[in-house]
């Protein structure tokens, strides 16, 4: 696969189907948006980091399609994935007199994408939106599949909606300005697809990790495309997470507890997911589903990708108890019982509960 070839991945969801376009030189090309429904106005939602880099170029690319293109700039950071930031989007929509056809463009990472999607789902009970993801994490995961949300101090992504974009425009060139730590954070969600769905992909990532970390265009093009294909396959079967889609949350139950427990923004989401995958793999091993070799293999890759593999001790007297308390707020929990995404055999995931004693052992050993 050449990095210069346009790749497309289809999300098949009946009347909510759409395409992900993947290549360089896409986000500032008017042709990327020419097929979108006609509307008088567009609103670009971005943040204080990505806006100065890319908003003007997107504005110019949208000008042939919309007579008015407005921009709203949110504060940058997971700690700003809040009602207050969401309200800034509604303020902009209302103050510009935006109507039901106004199209929102999420220009940024997963935080901007999740908030823009939620704003689009609720403004006038639903307006169109397009994802223009600029972080690796957003290109391989968060911009695809229609999960939108904001955080609550008591739990991550607890308030939101399923709402699909009209299109996803993954411009690989935008990854050139991403800080290295954010590239690693995105890699956590890329690595995730291997143990849950595709061992060949896991082996490919292991073999090409140096090229990925060096941002070689062909390597980036491959991981974005393969990740989107796997996510599209899952989402097309289970849009609203009645079952299968939960496997995409491998590492997230522990990871969300790390994020909420330390305070949003202290660890990057991808860092928490990376460490959370190590914890979930260890729990899978303690339940006899995978062997120590597989846990070691995954842990080694996650560490080489530049992600933490030792879990943080959370504030409070009872560290494991605090993890358990936070994990009970997870969206997969039923009647207070925590459901973990575990590896039942390498390349395949399942959702199941585990005895608190085993979970405590995993937390104690990962925090040591
Ligand atoms: P992020 O949105 O905070 O972006 C990471 C950082 O990189 C930010 O500082 C951002 O401003 C900066 N950035 C983004 N693109 C850049 C670029 N091209 N150049 C320079 N800087 C750039 O975080 P993220 O890792 O992109 O996304 C994490 C969020 O995504 C979390 O809130 C998580 O809950 C959410 N998420 C959602 C889904 C979903 O299905 N909706 C899936 C996974 C994660
Ligand atoms: N990132 C998890 C999901 O989209 O379901």
Describe the structure.
This protein has 368 residues and is α/β, with parallel strands linked by helices. It folds into 2 domains: 7-176, Rossmann fold (3-Layer(aba) Sandwich), CATH 3.40.50.1970; 180-367, Dehydroquinate synthase-like, alpha domain, CATH 1.20.1090. 44% of the residues lie in helices and 18% in strands. The strands form 3 sheets. The protein has a 7-stranded mixed β-sheet, with helices on both faces. A two-stranded antiparallel ribbon has the order 7-8. Helix 1 (50-62) links the parallel strand 3 (41-47) and strand 4 (68-74). Helix 4 (136-142) runs parallel beside helix 5, helix 5 (180-197) runs antiparallel to helix 6 (199-213) and helix 9 packs antiparallel against helix 10. The longest helix is centred in the middle third of the chain and has 21 residues, at 217-237. The chain binds nicotinamide-adenine-dinucleotide and glycine.
How many strands, which pairing sense, and closed or not: the largest β-sheet? 7 strands, mixed
CATH level 4 superfamily of the largest domain: Dehydroquinate synthase-like - alpha domain
Number of domains: 2
- Oligomer state of the chains in this structure: single chain
The pLDDT mean sits at: 97
Helicity, as a percent range: 40-55%
Number of helices: 12
Bound molecules: nicotinamide-adenine-dinucleotide, glycine
CATH secondary-structure class of the largest domain: Mainly Alpha
Category from helices, strands and their pairing: alpha/beta
H/E element sequence: EEEHEHEHEHEEEHHHHHHHEEH
- State which percent range the strand residues make up: 15-25%
What's the architecture of the largest domain in CATH terms?
A: Up-down Bundle
Strand order in space, largest sheet: 1-2-9-6-5-3-4
Cα(first) to Cα(last) distance is: 43 Å
Describe the global form.
Answer: globular
- Strand tally is 11
CATH structural fold name of the largest domain: Dehydroquinate synthase-like, alpha domain
**Unreliable runs, pLDDT <50, ≥5 residues?**
none
Radius of gyration: 20 Å
């Amino acid at each position: 696969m050449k990095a210069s070839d346009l790749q497309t991945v289809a999300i098949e969801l009946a009347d909510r189907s759409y395409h992900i376009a993947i290549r360089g030189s896409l986000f500032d090309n008017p042709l990327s948006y020419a097929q979108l429904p006609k509307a008088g106005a567009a609103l670009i939602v971005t943040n204080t980091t990505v806006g100065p880099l890319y908003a003007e170029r997107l504005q110019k690319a949208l000008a042939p399609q919309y007579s008015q293109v407005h921009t709203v700039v949110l504060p940058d950071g997971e700690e700003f994935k809040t009602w207050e930031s969401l309200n800034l989007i509604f303020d902009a929509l209302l103050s510009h007199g935006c109507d039901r056809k106004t199209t929102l463009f999420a220009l940024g990472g997963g935080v901007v994408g999740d908030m823009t999607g939620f704003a689009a789902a609720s403004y006038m009970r639903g307006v169109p939106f397009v994802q223009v993801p600029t972080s690796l994490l957003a290109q391989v995961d968060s911009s695809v599949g229609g999960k939108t949300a904001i955080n609550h101090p008591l739990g991550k992504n607890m308030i939101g909606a399923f709402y699909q974009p009209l299109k996803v425009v993954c411009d690989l060139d935008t990854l050139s300005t991403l800080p290295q730590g954010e590239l690693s954070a995105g890699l956590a969600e890329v690595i995730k697809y291997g143990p849950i769905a595709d061992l060949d992909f896991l082996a490919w990532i292991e073999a090409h990790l140096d090229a990925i970390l060096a941002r070689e265009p062909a390597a980036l093009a491959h991981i974005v495309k393969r990740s989107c294909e796997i996510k599209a396959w899952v989402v097309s079967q289970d849009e609203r997470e009645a079952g299968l889609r939960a496997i995409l949350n491998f590492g997230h139950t522990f990871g969300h507890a790390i994020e909420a427990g330390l305070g949003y923004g202290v660890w990057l989401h991808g860092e928490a997911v990376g460490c959370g995958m190590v914890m979930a793999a260890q729990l899978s091993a303690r339940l006899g589903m995978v062997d120590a070799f597989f846990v070691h293999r995954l842990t080694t890759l996650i560490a080489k990708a530049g992600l933490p593999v030792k879990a943080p001790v959370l504030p409070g007297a009872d560290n494991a108890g605090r993890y358990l308390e936070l994990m009970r707020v997870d969206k997969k929990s039923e009647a207070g019982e925590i459901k973990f995404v575990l590896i039942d055999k390498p390349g395949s995931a399942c959702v199941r509960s585990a005895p608190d004693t085993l979970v405590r052992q995993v937390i104690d050993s990962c925090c040591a």
